[in-house]
């Protein structure tokens, strides 16, 4: 099969900033290509990259799954996913170019013949599409399947790079169930692929606002000088969802909020918020600073007082009656899986000594939001009458990761009138208002980084290990502490989460 090149973009000039970000000859193999992640995120992201002119004309896309499909049927499924979920307009000529490189291999993970056929398919793409032996393998499958797939990739020779070419593997979270399983998984994967060829996807790190956190801190003199214990009272990092587990019972039960979100997303956000300035923004320098933060985290002495876990009950949310976690389809009525988790962590460094970091995440909460709130200390002296500042809170810098990406600053201002009255106001920056460019979806950025071999946004194995060392003692404590605390849908978690903050003389922000 020969490809028909897409006409050159007349707007692309030699000074086009996309040039260093255009992938070279390459292909992507997706395992578990029939799942929701592939249909809603991966396949649309691949089309959007092609539509933005960031994929090579001969790009190859191969699906591997148990379904009895052929390449034509897989191409149709891909087209439907693209038309429903892609962020860029559908263009027939871009689709035809992409579709010519679509292949499908049917089989089970323990089927030697299927992986041998996959090897022949990949070789065929090299010959027909000019992919040059460069292929990434995306494991959109349960973690329990990682070892088997990796062993099959090794047995069939698919993991072996030829001179001048590369092979890479992409794995989705969770990276293990605890520290021991994470280390075992790392051992299996890195016995097949070199460490620098393993890309651990944390899609939060691909979000524009998360990357903007680095620009906010290190490109602006007004922020970095006050980013320390002299000025910061505490930091709150929240990832809240207003939905239940939906159809994810098979994945979620036994995992819970802490493993699903705190171990990866929130600890990564903490590391980026608290790290020192890297010597550069290459992968090694960023990882070195994040690892320093993660290794400096200390747990509170009394985990009963400074952690909270909850489980949502039945009730009303958004005007409709919803079931509790234990009534969700596929959930055991005696499950102790947490659907809400909150912890206090401290960082034993000079910059952050005495500044607590509060992390919380949960389902069926008040609204969908992810944010980092840096809350500053109160002014040491207020030359106002007490009544003048009754409605004045603490200054805060809030980085909104989703859904309305941006940054807001909360500070005090005088209320118009003849008397002196100071009240909180907010100054707001939103990406959608400040820039005309559309932000790429997180998976677009991360898939392109895999094809380019650019690893700064991917957690290294050491970061995963350090994160589990933080979370494991909390999980072990909870296992011996009875059931999670109940909370009603549409609230902000169980009473124990609010009590945890109140003991420190603080309160959760209302996002």
TrEMBL record:
Residues 496-511 have a biased composition (Basic and acidic residues). NADP(+) binds at residues 66, 108-109, 173. Signal peptide: none annotated. Its EC number is 1.1.1.49. The keyword Cell wall biogenesis/degradation does not apply. Keywords: Carbohydrate metabolism, Glucose metabolism, NADP, Oxidoreductase. Residues 214-509 form the Glucose-6-phosphate dehydrogenase C-terminal domain. Residues 480-511 are annotated as: Disordered. Belongs to the glucose-6-phosphate dehydrogenase family. Catalyzes the oxidation of glucose 6-phosphate to 6-phosphogluconolactone. This is Glucose-6-phosphate 1-dehydrogenase. It comes from Salana multivorans.
């Amino acid at each position: 099969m020969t490809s028909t090149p897409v006409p050159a973009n007349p707007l692309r000039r030699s000074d086009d900033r996309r040039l260093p970000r255009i992938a070279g000859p390459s292909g992507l193999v997706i395992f578990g290509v029939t799942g929701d992640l592939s249909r809603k995120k991966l396949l649309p992201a691949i089309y959007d990259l092609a539509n933005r002119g960031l994929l090579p004309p001969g790009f190859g896309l191969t699906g591997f799954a148990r379904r009895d499909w052929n390449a034509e049927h897989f191409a149709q499924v891909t087209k439907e996913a693209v038309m429903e979920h892609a962020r860029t307009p559908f263009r027939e000529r871009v689709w035809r170019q992409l579709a010519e490189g679509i292949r499908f291999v049917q089989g089970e993970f323990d089927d030697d013949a299927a992986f041998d056929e996959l090897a022949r398919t990949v070789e065929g793409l090299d010959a027909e599409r000019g992919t040059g032996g460069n292929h990434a393998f995306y494991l959109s499958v349960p973690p329990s399947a990682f070892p088997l797939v990796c062993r099959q990739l090794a047995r069939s020779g698919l993991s072996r790079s030829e001179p001048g070419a590369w092979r890479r593997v992409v794995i989705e979270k969770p990276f293990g169930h605890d520290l021991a399983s994470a280390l075992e998984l790392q051992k299996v994967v890195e016995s097949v692929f070199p460490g620098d060829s393993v890309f651990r996807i944390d899609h939060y790190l691909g979000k524009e606002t998360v990357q903007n956190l680095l620009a906010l801190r290190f490109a602006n003199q007004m922020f970095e000088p006050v980013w320390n214990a002299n000025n910061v009272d505490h930091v709150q990092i929240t990832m809240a969802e207003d939905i239940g587990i939906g159809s994810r019972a098979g994945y979620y039960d036994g995992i819970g909020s802490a493993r699903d979100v705190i171990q990866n997303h929130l600890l990564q956000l903490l590391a980026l918020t608290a790290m020192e300035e890297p010597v550069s923004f290459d992968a090694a320098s960023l990882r070195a600073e994040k690892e320093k933060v993660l290794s400096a985290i200390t747990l509170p002495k009394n985990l009963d007082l400074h952690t909270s876990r909850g489980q949502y009950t039945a009730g009303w949310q958004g005007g409709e009656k919803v079931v509790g976690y234990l009534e969700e389809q596929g959930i055991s009525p005696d499950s102790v899986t947490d659907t809400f988790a909150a912890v206090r962590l401290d960082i034993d460094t000079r910059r952050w000594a005495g500044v607590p970091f509060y992390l919380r995440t949960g389902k069926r909460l008040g609204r969908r939001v992810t944010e980092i709130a840096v809350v500053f200390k109160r002014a040491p002296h207020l030359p106002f009458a007490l009544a003048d500042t009754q409605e004045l809170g603490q200054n805060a810098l809030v980085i909104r990761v989703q859904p309305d990406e941006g940054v807001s600053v909360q500070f005090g201002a005088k209320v118009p009138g003849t008397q002196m009255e100071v009240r909180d106001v907010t100054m707001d920056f939103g990406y959608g208002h400040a820039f005309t460019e559309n932000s790429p979806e997180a998976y677009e950025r991360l898939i392109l980084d895999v094809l380019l071999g650019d690893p700064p946004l991917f957690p290294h194995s050491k970061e995963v290990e350090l994160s589990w060392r933080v979370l494991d003692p909390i999980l072990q404590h909870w296992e011996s502490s009875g059931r999670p605390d109940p909370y009603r849908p549409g609230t902000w978690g169980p009473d124990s989460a609010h009590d945890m903050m109140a003991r420190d003389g603080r309160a959760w922000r209302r996002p």
